[in-house]
Protein 1
Amino acid sequence: MAVMSQLAFEDSGRGSPVVLFVHAFPFDRRMWRRQIDALARHDVRTIAVDLAGFGASADLPPRRSVDEHADDVAQVLEACGVDRAIAVGLSMGGYVALALARRHPQRLAGLVLADTRASGDTEEAKQGRAVNIERARKQGVAAVFDAMSTAWPPNADRMHIEEMRSLSAAQNPAGVIAALEMMRDRPDATPTLGQIRVPTRVIVGSADGLTPPSLAEIMTRSIPGAQQVIIEGAGHFTNIERSAEFDQVLLDLVRHVRPT
Ligand code: MLT
């Protein structure tokens, strides 16, 4: 893993196009380990970042807007000598990937928006952020994860939940609180979806209670040429719950984008 004055990141494998992973809340790059391994087996180079305040970037000043997070990610690509990448963002990572598409469109070769939404927080969601900020302060980050129970279908694999819970418990509360504020204050990205010009896949679990298929549908309809993939029975963390299907979408997009 590389740690720079900027974000920490993991740069694995070789080949083109490069796939760039942006993690969900409240986790870090390690949530992508299945995808990193699967793509390495197919000679695909991957870069997985830890956003400021998370994972090995925990010591960076975490107070950033969604646009600043996107700029951080663009800097990692620059530092790695990568002109363009397929950006893959899940949930909060999708918010950052959409900001990357808006601010650095020349950096994108493709886009995967997984279990995420383009719209900003509703008033009710903003109130939920305040509750979670208190929760993170008083009870720790795992309590914030435990409150995300609608993310999982009732029959979800307990091993997956445990894996995510321990990854959340490893995060720095200050970074998590800053991310809650960032998500609360992020703008509505819906008006900019029509400007996306790269091959895009929108993935969603049919049982995702946090970012349900109706929100994926809005992005699919608004992004020219976007294709939607619904993973039947999966909840919010499709890359963990149903990694084989998720990886297949990535590989298909890599083949589509790969120079011949
Ligand atoms: C995530 O999974 O990254 C979060 O659910 C996003 C959010 O809270 O808006």
Protein 2
Amino acid sequence: MKDLAQRFPENPLLLPKDLTVSSSEMQIISLLNPGAFSYDDKIWLLVRVAESLSQKEGFIYVPVLDASGKTELVEVALNDPDLIATDPRIVNYKGLDYLTTISHLRLLCSTDGVHFEEPEGYAPLFGNGPLERFGIEDCRVAKIENTYYLSYTAVSESGVAVGLRTTTDWKNFESKGLILPPHNKDCAIFEEKINGKFYALHRPSSVDLGGNFIWLAESPDGLHWGNHKCIVKTRDDLWDSARVGAGAAPIKTAEGWLEVYHGANKKNQYCLGAFLMDLEDPSKVIARTKEPIMLPLETYELSGFFGYVVFTNGHIIDGDTLTVYYGAADEFVCGAHFSIQQILSALIKI
Ligand code: MAN
């Protein structure tokens, strides 16, 4: 099967061994799901670096941040009957869920969009406080006027939620706390106000009624969100039957706001699709692709920390060219070009 993505021949662009650990007792397990933005005439990625503690045979060490931001560990014997460790991403111990890795966000920049380096003087972003004790992940970057809005997944034993920080210079950050409480992630803020209001896509999930659907919210100030509407649902028997979630900020086109999103089926296989929202009222979804616009095909997408995954939350737009930066197999950072026109042509009216 073919898809619409023109993958970079240089893929994977970044591998775990390309970056240094955040502290000596850690090891980098994966680099994934970068936010992307232009700043200072360069292309920047805000890469999710997932680390774990060096493991000892027979034990599993789960990393969490203590009150001062230092990594501490929870040690569990692998033969402990209270341990459930069937998913490489999460373990359950004595009825509580933990992540096997802890993520922080690392800034890298590039002049060609292909070769990325860590510039001096730009510190990594770490989880901060009790609601980010299991780390911060999958950050979307939206530039509105002169401010960058960083909406990311904040993880702790209290749940998975959406945190927000803002910056104008990538050196000083203002933390705005959680803007959406658990369970919620995949929050992509529109880069333009519509009729004076901020808009964002987000993905709450319920363990009971409902599902893993994409919602739209509006806000007078980018901090307080309301008037939530459920706009895109999973589709039975298709590639996005189990969960859907927004990618990066919607792309403004003459035909509407175009959103590249991820969907997964019940086997946790992740592909990308697209949908189109009305320019004046984004709660109206006008069209959606039926087939994925990108699916895991290459070896680096099919096998890794968690195989059969392409996942994006960062892109750069240049005319008709959409450069999507994505996490492959939950382990590598990759890039692909799309033609925006081609994505629009693949949409089917609703
Ligand atoms: C899922 C996956 C993981 C992630 C957790 C918490 O299990 O997306 O990669 O760490 O959720 O967000």
